[in-house]
Specification:
alpha+beta, binds zinc ion
Length: 89
């Protein structure tokens, strides 16, 4: 792991990966998504801020779960919403 940029990213020792390659909230409402992100607090996989419904950032605010990981193949980074911190691993 590279040097952590905030206290939230510092606490991540094992990256949670996506269990399903879909945004469960988008599937419920029949919406489309662009990229997928996995919450590092509870492990839920939701859609990114480029997607129309932005479920990952809504979840982060509503649940106070600060850090997500990219769930896209080949992308290895974590992002902290409150600190706008990005960490590649
Ligand atoms: Zn942080
Ligand atoms: Zn979604
Ligand atoms: Zn969560």
């Amino acid at each position: 792991m590279a040097e952590a940029v905030c206290s939230h990213l510092e606490t991540i020792t094992t990256v949670k990966h996506a269990k399903h390659r879909q945004c469960d909230e988008c599937v419920k409402i029949g919406a489309q998504w662009v990229h997928l992100r996995t919450c590092q607090t509870c492990g839920v996989t939701l859609c990114c801020d480029s997607s129309p419904n932005r479920h990952a950032s809504k979840h982060a605010r509503a649940s106070d779960h600060p850090v997500i990981a990219s769930a896209e193949p080949g992308e290895r980074w974590l992002y902290c919403y409150p600190d706008d911190g990005l960490l590649e691993y």
